[in-house]
Amino acid sequence: MLSAQLKYTLLAAGLMFGGSFTGANAASYCADGKTVTFAGIDWESGALITEVMKAILLKGYDCKVDSIPGNSVTLEQATANNDVQIFAEEWIGRSDVWNNAAAAGQVTSVGKTFVGASEGWFVPEYLVKGDQARGVKPLAPDLKSVSQLSDPKIVELFKDPEEPSKGRFLNCPSGWTCEGVNTAKLEAYKLTDAYVNFRPGTGTALDAAISSAYLQGEPVLFYYWSPTAIMGKFQLVQLEEPAYDEACWKELTSATGKREAGCAFPAVEVAYGVNSTFAKEAPEIIQILEKATFPLEEVNASLAYMVDQKADAVAAADQFLKTKGAVWNAWVSADAKAKIEASLK
Questions:
Q1: Distance (Å, rounded) from C-alpha 343 to C-alpha 345?
Q2: In terms of DSSP H, where are the helices of 1-95?
Q3: Of 73, 102, 269, 264, nearest in space to 180 by CA
Q4: What are phi and psi of 300, to 5 degrees?
Q5: Which residue stretches of the chain have pLDDT < 70?
Q6: Does an H or E element contain 195, and which?
Q7: CA gap 1, 9 in Å, rounded
Q8: Res 66: pLDDT
């Protein structure tokens, strides 16, 4: 056993160098040559945040970092298996895969990636209020709720070009957690006979479809969320739904759930989803994630930058680190801050 004097000496040394036994263990995760693999999320905010956090670990903490592509369900399972260590934008409680992995102790949520996000079904504001500057008339001035979507006159507004007897609902791409929830909602709201459940191939394709309709002043019905460039650039109206109810939501999000009633999305909780084994092996990285909350307005600004400058997530992350030091400096150690800033010059 260690003598009291030796224990005191070791403790003092740890404090003197600004470290701790936890910090030493965390440093060894990267120092031992292990790679921190991120989920290669393909939606805008997830891609941006992933690249920011990868850069922080690479440049500030000398970690090997990587990411692997895939849809959200596949990447959640990969996180449970520890093939992926960090899922940077996990919408907690939205996925059976994640819920089951959390219940089994395979994954855990850390910190708050951002706060104040929202999601739902939207239409352009000009559809309800018109846009005098563009000469767009309000074609559905009374539209405010999903309960009105079954009205044949409303269905006609959103006519599907390939199946004109139905309207078109723009869902998430297949494989995204939100796609399954929206599909369940279409069933619950008894809209499957009236609307084509259109799933774009990618998040980029979804954005392109919304942007094209908006810029032409055409009706479009779609699911969306914030933070996103779309929400920052366009004036949209979120359609009302029955109030969130826990029992209703459980049925909607379960693959075997009943589709008897729909309800609004619950309040959003977005965290870093991490593998539980990794969380124990790399506590210093977990400490960074616990602090790394992105202000929603800064995320929207970065996403608008990506669109306006036609920049990818890597370039936008570099821009974020260069211009938003007041945000991320508080997440990292003084030594890491100096390394990151030096790398940006």
A1: 6
A2: 4-16, 21-31, 44-55, 61, 72-80
A3: 73
A4: -60, -40
A5: 1-27
A6: strand 195-198
A7: 14
A8: 98
List the one residue out of 42, 84, 268 whose CA is nearest residue 175. 42
pLDDT digits (tens, 9 = 90+) for 278-292: 999 999 999 999 999
Phi, psi of 95 (to 5 degrees): -130, 130
Amino acid at 111: G
Q: What is the dihedral of CA 330, 332, 338, 344, to 10 degrees?
A: -90
Q: Which tokens belong to 227?
A: 């933070």
Could you tell me the two tokens for 51?
A: 């690249």
Candidates 111, 33, 23, 91; CA nearest to 66 is 33
Q: Would you say 254 and 96 are in contact if contact means Cβ atoms under 8 Å apart?
A: yes
- Asked, as a colleague might, if the bond just before 227 is cis with ω within 30 of 0, I would say yes
CA distance 104 to 109: 13
Q: What is the pLDDT of residue 3?
A: 44
Q: What angle do CA 310, 303, 270 make, to 5 degrees?
A: 145
**pLDDT value of residue 43:** 87
pLDDT of residue 320: 97
**What distance in Å separates the CA atoms of residue 283 and residue 196, rounded to the nearest whole number?**
47
- CB–CB of 248/263 below 8 Å? yes
H runs (alpha helix) in the chain: 4-16, 21-31, 44-55, 61, 72-80, 96-103, 125-129, 152-157, 177-188, 203-215, 229-233, 246-253, 276-281, 283-291, 296-309, 313-323, 325-328, 334-344
70 phi and psi angles, rounded to 5 deg: 155, 170
221-226 and 118-124 strand pairing: antiparallel
Q: Quick check: 138 and 130 in contact, CB under 8 A? A: yes
Which residues sit opposite 223 in a β-bridge? 121
